[in-house]
Specification:
The chain is mostly helical. It contains twelve helices and no strands. It is 48% helix and 0% strand.
Length: 260
């Protein structure tokens, strides 16, 4: 069984719809947290869990897999979920047990067993749990102002993407030389197409594609403040900090009104 038949001209359903919608995810999390209460590895992690917690996690998973933005609207989105992990110092055995027990709960809840669904479902569990593990460690400083990730039938991307991603952009982006100076004077009028887009490499775009496209003007405009925070702190791109000149150019583009 596959999300669509080869002959179908209809777009594929979301992972959320294929799973059975909100009721299916609610059933999943009720079963999962019912088992957590008696699990020797996970029970201490969720010892102070509120009665509403299973439904909140169901809302998060539903939004991640293409359902309504209920978690963002009612709980505060990515920033709130991140706040639930900061400083928790989770362990790898706890992370691995969470993934294992969630898979077993999916079977018990009757979620689809076809390989396409389980591939998408388990890939998010692995990606999300490993990110949560890293973000929970002492001294971790993850970005705070990010959207809820949207997981479809193949968002993990090619091997080597640092944060998980969609497929590489179809339009190649030129990789700038390590010491390439900005292409516009800071006192001039930088444009996105000529001056800002080339500063983001293919690797930058792939690593952030789970959230938005760094090659798209509208997306970069919408997230410019968060991007600048990460650039200025040296945490973006993830593999090498930008030079002061590049950060200044991006800041100047913002100050000039984020021109085309």
């Amino acid at each position: 069984m596959t999300p669509t038949s080869p002959a179908s001209s209809q777009p594929p359903p979301t992972v959320f719809a294929w799973a059975g919608g909100a009721e299916a995810f609610s059933r999943l999390t009720r079963i999962f947290y019912g088992h957590v209460k008696t699990d020797p590895i996970l029970a201490p992690v969720f010892a102070e869990m509120s009665p509403e917690h299973p439904e909140w996690v169901a809302q998060w998973l539903g939004e991640v897999f293409g359902g309504p933005a209920t978690y963002t609207q009612q709980r505060g989105g990515y920033a709130h979920m991140l706040s639930r992990h900061l400083g928790r110092a989770l362990t790898e055995p706890q992370r691995a047990r969470w993934v294992q027990l969630m898979g077993e709960a999916a079977d018990e809840a009757g979620l689809p067993a076809d390989p396409e669904f389980r591939s998408a479902f388990v890939s998010y569990l692995e990606w999300g749990s490993r990110l949560a593990l890293a973000n929970s460690q002492p001294g971790a400083e993850p970005p705070l102002r990010m959207p809820v990730p949207h997981w479809d039938w193949g968002p993990a991307g090619r091997p080597g993407a640092p944060l998980g991603s969609a497929s590489p952009p179809s339009t190649p982006v030129k990789e700038p030389a390590a010491q390439q100076p900005p292409t516009a004077e800071v006192t001039g009028s930088p444009s996105f197409e000529r001056d800002i887009r080339p500063l983001f490499t293919d690797r930058d775009r792939v690593s952030m594609a789970w959230a938005f496209d760094l090659g798209d003007l509208a997306a970069v405009r919408a997230h410019a403040d968060a991007i600048l925070d990460q650039l200025a702190s040296g945490r973006m791109p993830c593999y090498a900090a930008w030079s002061a000149e590049r950060v200044a150019l991006f800041r100047h583009w913002m100050e000039r009104g984020k021109l085309d």
